[in-house]
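Quick one: structure for this chain?
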Amino acid sequence: MTKKFLGLLGIDSARVKLAWISSAEGNKFAQVANEFTQQIKKLGPADIKQVA
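Got it. Here's what it folds into:
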């Protein structure tokens, strides 16, 4: 539902990620964060228009 809402705002759903990671999974958090950062860098700057 959040991705649909962001789509209405003109934000690409590929720029949103939800991952369930417990506090005991530090390595998994780092891996997910690094992978998502690389994905966002490949997408380039967001084309979001500011509404006044």
